[in-house]
Amino acid sequence: MKRIAGMLLVVLAVAGVLWADGALSITGAGATFPYPMYSKWFDEYHKQNANLSINYQSIGSGGGIKQVTEGTVDFGASDGPMNDEQLKAYADKHGWGILHFPTVMGAVVPFYNIPGVTAELNFTPEALAGIYLGKITKWNDPAITGANKGISLPANDIVVVHRAEGSGTTFCWTDYLSKVSDEWKTKVGKGGSVNWPVGLGGKGSEGVTGTVKNTPNSIGYVELTYAESNKIPYGNVKNAAGVFVKASLGAVSAAAAGAAKDMPDDFRVSITNAPGKASYPISTFTWLLIPEKFTDTAKRDAIKGFVKWALKDGQGYAEGLSYAKLPTEVVAKELKAIDKIQ
Amino acid sequence: MATTTTTVPSAGPVAGSRSFLSRLRDGDEIARMITFLFAASVVLVTVLLVLELWQGSVLARHKFGFNFFRTSVWDPIFDQFGALPFIYGTLVTAGVSLVIAVPLGIGAAIFLAELAPARVSDALEFFIDLLAAVPSVIYGLLGVFIVVPLMRDYLQPALKKTLGFLPLFQGPAYGVGFLTAGIVLAIMVIPYIISVSREVLLSVPRDQREAALSLGSTRWEATWKVVVPFARGGIMGSIFLALARALGETMAVTMVIGNNPIVSASLFSPGYSIAAVIANELTEATSNLHYQSLIELGLVLFILTFVLNGLARLLIVATSQRGAGMGNA
After folding, report:
1. Distance of CA B140 to CAs A209, A241, B104, B151, B188, Å?
2. Residues 6+ away with beta carbon under 8 Å from B274
3. Neighbour count for residue A33 (Cβ, 10 Å)
4. Residue A72 has what pLDDT?
5. Cβ contact (<8 Å) for B280 and A188?
6. End-to-end CA distance of chain B
7. Are B105 and B197 within 8 A, CB to CB?
8. Which of B73, B175, B259 sits opposite A214 (nearest CB)?
9. Distance to chain B for A125, nearest Cα, Å
10. Contacts with A60 from chain B: Cβ below 8 Å
11. What is the separation of C-alpha B233 from the centre of its chain, rounded to a whole number of angstroms?
12. φ and ψ at B166, to 5 degrees?
């Protein structure tokens, strides 16, 4: 018994020494969509700052908001901004607010599997909303053929595919549909998971892709990064200026540039259906959620240092991973906002 | 325990502690305490689980009450939650899987236990155990890449042509849906039924079989009229083990069921199950009511499993009594 107690003491002492000497560890949780980007950042930043390690769990945007509100993690991350109710819940619990910091941008693209059609299809907002509302049921509906002159589309029933689980991708997609269709806004709304009027749910991006590939006459949506890395061809979408745009990093940045001019101070802004001829309309920021106040000053300084780095040097890694860089105006504004963290 | 508490205090504290210590040295007391703790922890975990689910769903229970089980709208945006399509999907997929798996599984078990040479039986048993250990995501992938296309291109059109007059086999053939989920579940649970039923059949005493044969019955008659009824309780047990697995299966089901909360008489229709919706939506549930409704679904699944297990016990008791009665007659 004594021997065991002695061994325990030794172990505790060693652990204590390691703890005191060792790295500062920061935990975060949230969005899955920017996870490849974030893990690259945390890794690179750790290489430069060996005594700081950031541990991030990609549990989903909703989970990130929940955990940062509960205070179980130091920061959260989300693909959709927190709504007023959630901000209030946070402030009520902690006595101070929480800040949004856009980190990178992404896009969501429609893709399809129609036997005999290899051409790139053009989608109007009316067509996409109609298909996902279950009002446009055939591929040769005038709403679709009107934008695709010269392509012969079959009279087959459209099989609609969406994400089964809650996701930031779905948030961006439904946010866009809510903006372009009043009926969508009142009947379905925007969110990470919604009450879909029609369709099959695929689990994860791979589930949606698999279902669309396996099902003739189907349509689905995935993130641009996922479509690019898996070489999935996708369609063009008509933007607010009336131009059909194919999603690309440039077209996403263009959408953000339009929004950057009148960016609100809290950065909670949606860039779907953004103005500008070159803008891709189904684009989104993704945010870090950082408390305004830290009781632990070492953690505070570490997080501030990291965010600064991510906004400057970190942006250089974005395009390699198919994320769009933040516009410089937004970065400048965010660098100022970092001082709000106390 | 009873003897320690009654005799020890009268012998005085010193003697008592000494005898307790000496019993500790023997190991019996230690073993008894430790195993008791282990057994008690099962009850404790179950109680805590129910308590946690009950408390975690308080908002949803108060808001929807009994309507939670009757309505079929599941709308996270407008905070309307009804569990009916999920309960329906869970029961239908589990039911379809048993309809397929029970005859196949018991048939295979009878062959392996009664008819096949021992060497073949043992070799096959190895493969069956292997199948039972395959992770469910593998069965899900098998479902997505093999069963779904087969269903869409061959089985569903064929069923529509031959049995299409039944409401069970109508509507568009997507490949995914209740029937596909039921078939994938059946593939998953058959190994359980075979493995347990085979063991039970093998453990039927030899003299039962020999008595039947000596009375002039054929080998099949001895198997079907004596051995199988004797093993009925154990075979039932294997079926309910399979049912429990089918009710709670998450990954394989969500990959092939279509994930759309629909109550439809057609087995071709896409559907949703309780376990699948919890796994899919819990991480992104932002509103409290949504989160708590998912917890309440967990409670519903727990109760469903509990009730079905209870019914199973009753059924086993009832049938084994009837079996004994038949034996007497």
Report:
1. 15, 44, 21, 14, 10
2. B83, B86, B87, B89, B90, B297, B298, B300, B301, B304
3. 29
4. 92
5. no
6. 45
7. yes
8. B175
9. 21
10. 283-284
11. 16
12. -80, 140
Specify the 3-state DSSP secondary structure of A205. helix
- Cα angle: A250, vertex A253, A259; to 5 degrees: 150
Residue B292 has pLDDT above 80, yes or no: yes
CA distance B284 to chain A (A): 4
A202 - beta bridge partners?
A163
Q: Of A194, A333, A324, A307, whose CA–CA distance to A271 is shortest?
A: A324
CA distance B300 to A117: 46
* CA dihedral of B89, B90, B96, B99, whole degrees rounded to 10: -150
Chain B residues in contact with A191 by the CB 8 A cut-off are: 76-77, 286
Neighbour tally for B88: CB within 10 Å? 20
Terminal-residue alpha carbon distance, chain A: 49
In sequence order, what are the residues at sequence separation of 6 or more whose Cβ sits closer than 8 angstroms to the Cβ of residue B303? none
Distance CA B71, CA B61 (A): 14
CB neighbours of residue A92 within 10 Å: 9
| A160 strand-pairing partners | A219
> In terms of DSSP H, where are the helices of chain A?
2-21, 35-48, 61-70, 84-94, 125-133, 142-145, 168-180, 182-187, 204-214, 224-229, 249-260, 297-311, 328-337
ipTM of the complex in this document? 0.76
**Euclidean distance between CA atoms B198 and B224, whole angstroms:** 14
User: Are A254 and A321 in contact, with CB atoms under 8 Å apart?
Assistant: no
pLDDT exceeds cutoff 90 at B315: no
Share of residues in chain A with pLDDT > 90 (%)? 61
Gap between the Cα atoms of B286 and B216, Å rounded: 70
Give helix A328-337 / helix A297-311 axis angle, nearest 10°.
170
Instruction: Retrieve residue B251's tokens.
Output: 């990954």
CB contact under 8 A, A207 and B255: yes
Cross-chain Cβ contact A215/B259 below 8 Å: no
Bridge partners, residue A221, by sequence: A110
- Spatial strand order in the sheet of A218-223: A52-57, A24-30, A75-78, A283-291, A98-113, A218-223, A159-163, A200-202
HSE-CB for B297 with a 13 A CA cutoff: 31
Residue type, A31: A
pLDDT at A3 over 90: no
Q: Residue B252 and residue B18: Cα distance in Å, rounded? A: 58
**Of B273, B236, B224, B14, residue with least CA distance to B111:** B224
Crossing angle of helices A84-94 and A61-70, rounded to 10°: 20
For residue B235, the surrounding DSSP H or E stretch is helix B232-248
The number of CA neighbours under 13 Å toward the Cβ of A2 is 0
Strands A200-202 and A236-238: unpaired
Judge contact between A108 and A273, C-beta under 8 A.
Answer: no
DSSP A33-63: TTHHHHHHHHHHHHHH-TTEEEEEE---HHH
Mean pLDDT is lowest, of A18-27, A126-135, B287-296, for A18-27
Measure CB to CB from residue B172 to each of A157, A194, A211 and give the nearest one: A157
State residue A145 phi and psi, 5-degree precision: -65, -30
Whole-model pTM: value is 0.81
Rounded to the nearest integer, the mean pLDDT of chain A is 89
Q: Token pair of B304, please? A: 């469903």
